């Protein structure tokens, strides 16, 4: 595949990958992934080891319902088409039951040969924000249980 065509596909796939987070719909987020895709979240103190599509989809179903009016914005993008890899820095702004949610991400993406699907995702997240959000989700769920 011509390098420029691959580069264009990788960029378009990276943009679609980020846009899928605007909906928090599992099907949209998973549609960009190759069947063999794995997703790791770092740093290890708040993240998790590589998960398959099925495992990551199940995880999304547990946390996705907390976020609405979500907007993921690409802030930086660097690609190496010869290696079918890209690095994307992004920020997310969303509403959550406890108020505004903001977070920063760096995504290391690896692509299929045509650049149309993602085969590996390594996600770096803001560990302090993530730790706080996990606590807020637990607090919200516990509050819901006590009112029912």
TrEMBL record:
Which region is the signal sequence? none
**Family annotation (InterPro entries):** Fungal_Meroterpenoid_Isomerase, NTF2-like_dom_sf, SnoaL-like
Domain (SnoaL-like) ranges: 15-118
Give the domain of life.
Eukaryota
SUPFAM superfamilies, A to Z? NTF2-like (SSF54427)
Question: What is this protein called in UniProt?
Answer: SnoaL-like domain-containing protein
Q: Which organism is it from?
A: Meristemomyces frigidus
